[in-house]
Amino acid sequence: MALRLFIATSNPGKLADFREAAEEYEIVLDPVPGLRTIPAPAEDGLTFEANAITKAIYYSGFAPGEVVIADDSGLEVDALNGAPGVRSARFAADTGLVDSPDANDNTDVWNNIVLLQKLDGVPESQRTARYRCVLAAARDGEILHTAEGVVEGTVLEAPHGTGGFGYDPIFYLPELDQTMADLDIGVKFALSHRGLAFDELLTKLSE
Prior knowledge:
Blueprint: E1 4-7, H1 12-24, E2 28-31, H2 48-60, E3 68-77, H3 107-118, E4 128-139, E5 142-155, E6 171-173, E7 178-179, H4 185-191, H5 193-206
Parallel strand pairs: 1-2, 1-3
Antiparallel strand pairs: 3-4, 4-5, 5-6, 6-7
């Protein structure tokens, strides 16, 4: 019988990534029932792990008896002392840059612009960064396992590539000479922070 997991995210990019992996592992993966109508919990943890655990425990209450996974992930830039880190999704908003109610969601664009502005003048050798993801699995309010994935890279001075989401267009992988936004989704997930964390979590769940 195929393993069924519920995931606590409505982010289209994350859903696409996880569903790509679910097909490979023959896992049934669905969003938590009614996710879009469930008020989101506060993500005020100081670490990715703390936020992932909070979300997994919270959303597992809306899928009794089922395994619910939640992630918290983001970009850590060495020249910015690890920022944006847990504030990755809200980096631009923290500076006051937000879309008007009638605008398209340009959050990723604004986040990239703010990051590039903060790194203006920083030489290539000092633009090292990493994507980090922590996944937590819970059932009925209790944590079963957590897993972490990390991928190292650098931040470009300008976006490149049309795929991916978030900081993918400016996150460069030197060993591949490509950004995350350049990669096919299957290749991307296999080597990404999210894919590495997912592999580790599935190993723990299968045990």
